[in-house]
């Protein structure tokens, strides 16, 4: 018994030793906690954060309505070996909005592929090109990675499964960059904060629940869970607090928005781990702000991200 217990403790400690995480305040970019944050590794379905950004940006650029745009599960879904949490099949249809719900809340891989195939096809058509629609979409994901300064990220598909000979990878810091960028988009913020949602597949309604156990807790806006054998249990969380209102020396009011991004990669207790990181992160941030929000070394103390697009 003691040997078994010792082995369990050893294996558990090894898992925690392999964890990567980062805690960052989104508006200031202040890194509040980090460990292995720039280590390249599989991030499983956290990949779908980038998938959602590309899809939302496409809908905005093309003025496509998320509720009336219909996507279809392509034949290439057969290569995913039935990895659909909703039991979808090739040829199933749903609105782009419902596909985003299925992808972000239930982490359905077929739904993510349907999004990529539809958007990729439209991108190729508008450019007068042929080719692999899903690859065209993945190319946009990698272009997005460059834009958000995610230099240690390469995507190989829109769902996050490790299927290709050279599977994709990212880091905790880069996932935080994608998360900050994603949560600047109202559709994504609205979707990922939901605990459940009714969607329609082939016109038939079904209710799906969020895989994120923190959804519904005070201030939590999402955003995404992910798990594969290679990546381990992963989680990205966004939490808002009410803006801090302070009176300046000249008598005017200064408003400081507050938003925390927590990314945990490869932790079997990812939800409780994130709760603790959130608590500790806010405490560190409050102390830093009270001390004057001093930044001595921006390169190491701040997470570089592009400013919001106006």
Question: Any overview of this molecule?
Answer:
The chain has helices spanning 2-17, 47-62, 96-104, 109-126, 133-147, 172-182, 186-192, 270-290, 298-301, and strands at 20-25, 31-35, 70-72, 93-95, 196-201, 204-209, 220-228, 232-247, 253-265. By secondary structure, the protein is α+β, with helices and mostly antiparallel strands. It has one domain: DD-peptidase/beta-lactamase superfamily (Beta-lactamase). It has a five-stranded antiparallel beta sheet, sandwiched between helices. Strands 3-4 form a two-stranded antiparallel ribbon. Strand 5 (196-201) and strand 6 (204-209) form a beta hairpin. Helix 2 (47-62) crosses helix 5 and helix 3 (96-104) crosses helix 4.
In a nutshell, what does this entry contain?
With 310 residues, the protein is α+β, with helices and mostly antiparallel strands.
């Amino acid at each position: 018994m003691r040997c078994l217990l010792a082995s369990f403790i050893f294996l558990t400690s090894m898992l925690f030793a392999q964890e990567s995480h980062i805690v960052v305040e989104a508006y200031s970019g202040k890194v509040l906690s980090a460990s292995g944050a720039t280590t390249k590794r599989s991030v499983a379905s956290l990949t779908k954060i980038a998938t959602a950004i590309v899809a939302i940006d496409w809908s905005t650029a093309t003025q496509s309505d998320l509720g009336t745009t219909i996507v279809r599960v392509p034949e290439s879904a057969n290569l995913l070996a039935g990895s659909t949490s909703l039991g979808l099949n090739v040829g199933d249809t749903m609105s782009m909005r419902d596909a985003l719900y299925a992808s972000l809340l239930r982490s359905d891989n077929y739904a993510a592929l349907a999004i990529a195939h539809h958007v990729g096809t439209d991108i190729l058509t508008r450019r007068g090109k042929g080719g692999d629609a899903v690859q065209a979409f993945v190319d946009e994901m990698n272009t997005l990675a460059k834009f958000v300064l995610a230099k240690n990220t390469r995507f190989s598909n829109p769902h996050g499964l490790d299927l290709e000979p050279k599977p994709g990878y990212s880091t905790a810091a880069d996932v935080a960059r994608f998360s900050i960028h994603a949560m600047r988009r109202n559709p994504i913020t609205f979707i990922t904060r939901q605990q459940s949602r009714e969607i329609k597949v082939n016109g038939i309604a079904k209710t799906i629940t969020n895989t994120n156990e923190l959804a519904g807790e005070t201030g939590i806006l999402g955003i995404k869970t992910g798990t594969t054998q290679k990546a381990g249990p992963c989680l990205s969380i966004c939490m808002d607090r009410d803006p801090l209102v302070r009176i300046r020396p000249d008598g005017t009011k200064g408003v400081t928005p507050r938003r925390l991004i927590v990314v945990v990669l490869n932790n079997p207790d990812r939800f409780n781990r994130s709760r603790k990181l959130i608590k500790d992160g806010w405490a560190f941030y409050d102390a830093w702000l009270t001390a004057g929000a001093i930044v001595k070394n921006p390169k190491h103390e701040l997470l570089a991200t592009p400013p919001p697009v106006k």
